[in-house]
Amino acid sequence: MTQVNRRRFLSGGMAVAGGGVLGAFGLSGTAGAAPDARPSQASGGEIGSGWTFAAADGTTAGSALSSAQNIAGLKPAIVPGTPLTSMIANGEYPDPLYGHIVTDTVPDTLKDTAYWYRVAFRVPKLVPGQRFWLQFDGINYLGTVWLNGVKLGTVEGAFKRAVFEATDIIAKSTGTAWLAVLVGKLDYTDPPALPSYTSGVTRGGRNGGPTGITLKNGPTFFCTAGWDWLPTIPDRDLGIWQPVTWRTTGPVRLADVQVTSTLSQDLHTADIAVELALDSAGAKSAVVKGSLAGREFRRTVDVPAGASSITLTSKDLACLRLNQPKLWWPNGYGDPYRYRLAVSIESGGQVHDERTVDFGIRRIEYTTPMRSPSGAVANCLAITVNNQPILVMGGNWGLDEALKRIPGERLRAQVRLHRDANLNLIRNWNGQSSTEEFFAACDEYGILVWQDFFCSTEGPPAENTVRDLANIRDCIVRFRNHPSILLWCGGNEGPPPQPLIDGLDALVADLDPQRVALTSSAGDTGANPIDGYRSGGPYHWVPPAKHFSLNDGTQWPPFHNEVGSYSIPTLEFLRKMLPESSWEHPDDFWADRDVNGNGGNGGGAGYLRLTAERYGEVRNLPDFARKSQLMNYECIKAIYEAPVANMRSAGPYPRTGVIMWMTNPAQPSFVWQMYSHDLEAHSSYYAVQHACRRINVVLDAKSFDVVVANHGRSAVRGRVEVTLYGLDGVEVSRDSFEADAGTSDRTVVGSIASRLKDVPSEIVFVRMVLKDSRGSEIVRNFYWAENPARAAGFAGLDEMPAAAVSVIAGVSRGPDGAEVAVDVRNVGESMALMVHLQVYDVRTGERVLPATFSDNYLNLVAGEATTVRVELDSEQARQHPKLGVRIDGWKIDQRASRLRGRGAAVTFNNQALDTHPAVPTFGR
């Protein structure tokens, strides 16, 4: 096979279906068939129930725990899980993330001990030649494994799997096996980092704990020491945090299956290579059988004893060449299609082992040349997939969930939210969320993954380089087949020690040479270094014009992988995450929910002052919530719109990507998120969704240019109609601009800078609609802007007349769930600003979450109407037989509005609308 420059080209990938569970099963969006059924020695399952645990006191031996002997003091355990999640489930502690300060609620001593886990499980009676395996997908931090009184071995580091053969032990069992695991504590820990609202900074003023020594441990969840987006987690997320499974095989085990594809430049053909890593109990002749895209294959091979490998290519098997292949595309550019490969190894008509693999075919180029400020030509990070330039619009994940409570349904919902927000990438910060379910969801939803590894500049490097590299190696082998993985990256914001840099480069060159390996998120020092990207914020609220200044095509570098802002949730969630005594009085409970951020804006108190300066005095918590939604929307929308408006032909440094810090919250929070910890999408989410539409019309907040952006493969031609309105909602002026935007580019079609100054009010509403040549609407956008002739913030919004709206909601139910259709019309003369809809359970009043809204936080001029559709899955439809819709917004005239339900209750959200108390109470 012809070798390509690994820093420029990538094709192919696969996902092992079912996390190692054998055999074929259905998966939406895939194609193919399993081999015909034959007698099989392969079976298996997850050991997910019946676990118990206890703190290790040093007096109980693994040989006793891994036997039928009665052991006192063990309590029920959740596996996968952590000691703290088990303690919460057992009622020992309340959920510390809601209504509590974590370090005041749970003792930090949980980190200071090892823990025993124990379970009994049924095992099959082995037939001659059959082998038995135990697999651990993740133990934090050190694991020692015992089975039926015998020590099987150890595993080191949170991100390394362990596979143990236990054939001899199980062969002697009577149908039940006793498993015991000693989970070792961290080698290095700090005391907790405590929140302080008055300090204005993160816990103790630094990330990673008081000294950052936790990072010396090597691969672990080091952010649990305390970060500016995460409190100190008392057990540091120790535990068996990933599934434990058992499986049987015949004499020959398929230890690993790697699928790679080489896609031709014209995208017309793809050559598939399949490498099988085998583990055989003895030398034998065997047959490899499989199927791909409805075509079967077989190959007779000689398998030596021990470890060996077999590679099958299109030169060997004609069915491994695909003509006109269906491609895996990032979100918004096409279908993320996955093929299915079924493969087995057998002899004597009996299957030894089998796997079903889903993989995607795509071709990636990583760089484009640009002349840097030094005058040298640099290969800058700029992604092209299947010959289509991709403007990266991504989100950073710090940790999927603070306490590692992340069942597959929740994780898929989180990734789906990114898909529906029109994002195309997630950066897995420091690899803290590396699981099979995460990558499989990204495969399914077309989300590229920037995969970090485990080094950060917030503390010393890992002390055990060998352990660190062993975890990196296993992650590459385990996940390299996922089409979603874009690149590997050594760590966060600075280079790891040179041995780790050298080790990572060598591992990628050996194990996954078609992908890029970056040194760190701040820069690359590889043999063919990639330039043109950086971290560095800003991480706090800035006016939209600031983001357009930073991304106007004149600033280096063109790719920005960390930039964020405050992101305040809805009133309902604010009241859910804080104790009632703190609702109106910001304090240390607010600080434990990250309100100080990284100290930008002067911490939480500074952000509150800024909110009041921009939108007027904050009167109570509902008023803070509604004003914060406008603060969220205008800043976070600009984070994405500014690069969109300055991609490709903007120069000399056109934007090639932006990754917001952050999109997914690990805990209930005030900052760095686009939805809440309970998966409610607040205004930040819709700011992202609206900014990242593949065809868009954008108002440059710095120059007031009107820009048409086109991410797609077809040119966009038509006209843009721009209408300006005064604070009273009356139309002031209207302009029309011809639009002709080429593929994957943007074009400035006109300017409204002079028009804005002619508006009589200090605040101007701007409505922009892009229509095609037939007059059909393609996309619309909406802004509130300061009149540049008399800029004075937006406190005047409280003086605008209240809007009258008509809201009609109906529910349709089917076998796949329910859809709530909400027709919203502005029936008055004033502007209907940030009209917010919530779906709720009429019986309980609780919000139904997660809920997929087609749109929200609506901005409608007089007479304008839209229909919002809300999708609920079948389980949600079953749990919530009576649904309702609640409405709030900036200012709504309830008496002039009309609400009507057709199978759904429709009400005003009076608590959210109660923003004008007789006496202000906020902060008093």
Protein architecture, described:
This protein has 924 residues and is an alpha+beta fold. It contains 17 helices and 48 strands. The strands form ten sheets. Strands 1, 2, 17, 18, 21, 22, 23 and 24 form an eight-stranded mixed beta sheet that branches. The protein has an eight-stranded parallel beta sheet with strand order 29-28-27-26-25-32-31-30. A six-stranded antiparallel beta sheet has the order 5-4-6-12-9-10. Helix 5 runs parallel beside helix 6 (436-445), helix 7 packs parallel to helix 8 and helix 9 runs parallel beside helix 13. The radius of gyration is 28 Å and the shape is globular.
Short synopsis of the structure:
This protein is α+β, with helices and mostly antiparallel strands and 924 residues long.
Number of helices: 17
What is Rg?
A: 28 Å
Main structural class: alpha+beta
The overall strand count is 48
- Tell me the major beta sheet: 8 strands, mixed
Q: Helicity level, as a percent range? A: 10-25%
Low-pLDDT residue spans:
1-35
How far from one another are the termini? 71 Å
Tell me the overall shape.
globular
Percent of residues in beta strands:
35-45%
- What average pLDDT do the residues reach? 94
